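Chapter review: from sequence to fold.
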Amino acid sequence: MSKEQRARIDALLRQPRPEGPQSVEAMRAGFTALMSRMIVPEAIRTARTTLGNRPALRVEPDNNPRGGTILYLHGGGWVFGSPETALSLTGHLVVKTGFRSYSLDYRLAPEHPFPAAIEDALSAYRALLDSGEDPSAIAFAGDSAGGGLTVATCLAARDAGLPLPAAIVAFSPGLDATQSGETLDTKADVDPLFTRERLEHTAAMYLAGADPHQPMLSPAVLADLTGFPPMLLQAGTNEVLLDDSTRLAARARAAGVDVILDITADVPHVFQSFAGVLDEADQALDRAALFLTQQVRAPDAAAA
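The token string follows.
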């Protein structure tokens, strides 16, 4: 653990922003610029493809690939972000597990509000199953809004009668559109990225008037997680969304679901993105990779 590393990242994330709500275009450009600074491992190859009628980025390890697939859902408040902005995360997961990943370019709000992103993720999962992939060889993973989508997509798959994936990994997931978590207030002074007002701004675009009091939008407080696969939830203590993970973990435990709640001290939202410059990020991704390799029943890569 390095106080100097954490201090540098905190300062980076606290750089001055324009006052007041930003336009969608400005938010998208700013997020792309921030994420372009993240370290992407070299030992990967990428290719653009299509999955469930949506663009996707296939990310594979250069050496010693294994059977097994990660369906990755990027973060960005359901309004910004792309497979490219998440490449530091997908790249490191791919290198550490040997699995391939499909990072989905799902539709974004406000042009495409709820439930478009969930529909796209479910369609992508159907496409993997229809291609012959065994659900026991597929894991859902995502960060922030995408972490929330991993849970919502699993709910949608269960509702549709589909077999569920082998595992879920969610980094700092957004899981409560009702915004009722206590840490929205108790962590306001230490979170370098978010305030309640910023989250409400993007959430309103995604909701587009929909009632947040429904399981697909607020699984941390409303979802029945019965029958869910094992889950790993990772979050930092310096984020207002911390309670989203802690409350979902409690619901999972109550539903008889295997769940690991992995909380790292004094790190911000989706700290795993800082792999290569923050020791805690590398360690958290090592734990996520171990969890995935334990849960995913990878077929022989040559037969995959």
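Two observations follow directly from the output. The longest helix spans residues 279-295. DSSP finds ten helices and eight strands in the chain.
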